[in-house]
Design a protein that fits this description.
4-stranded antiparallel beta sheet; sequence-specific DNA binding; AsnC-type_HTH_dom; alpha+beta; Transcriptional regulator, AsnC family; transcription regulation; 5 helices; Tscrpt_reg_HTH_AsnC-type_CS; single chain; Arc Repressor Mutant, subunit A
Length: about 160
């Protein structure tokens, strides 16, 4: 379900995605409005579910999490109970940054951020001890070329 947003709403979203720590006064100035209307628009977008949360982006390398693996998973199990166990195993592991169910030959792809290959192997061993997986391929990212959390909100 999409929400109808006008040009000012989209500018506000672009500003918040750029730096959510900005004051409402700063955002209002940048989008050509005043503080109260901007606050009302932000509140409405929160209520509509357009804005999910405010957060802080951390530098993985600075925290010693220097290895990013993309994990391709094929399973021969497609029952509800297997999927419930698998999803629970992923949800409790903080090293799993993203998990997607796919169409095609691969059933799932995970983005896993860890300190090194040994830490990835520990993650892998724990995962396969909890759920049966037919095939796993782990790809080590050699270089992050682009990473963003900003969605294209359609601002000129």
């Amino acid at each position: 379900m999409s929400v109808r947003l006008d040009r000012i709403d989209r500018k506000i979203l672009a500003e918040l995605q750029s730096d959510a720590a900005q004051s409402l006064d700063e955002i209002a100035k940048k989008v050509g409005s005043s503080k109260t209307p901007v606050w009302n628009r932000v509140r409405k977008m929160r209520e509509a579910g357009v804005i999910r949360q405010n957060t802080v982006l951390l530098n993985a390398e600075a925290l010693g999490l220097e290895a990013c693996f993309f994990v391709l998973i094929r399973t021969s199990e497609h029952e509800a109970e297997w999927q419930r166990k698998f999803l629970q195993a992923l949800r409790v592991r903080p090293e799993v940054l993203e998990a997607h169910r796919l169409a095609g030959d691969i059933d799932y792809i995970l983005k896993v951020q860890v300190t090194n290959a040994r830490a990835y192997d520990e993650f892998y061993q724990a995962l396969i001890s909890e759920v049966k997986i037919h095939n796993v391929t782990a790809l080590l990212s050699m270089e992050e070329i682009k990473s963003t959390t900003a969605l294209p909100v359609g601002v000129d």
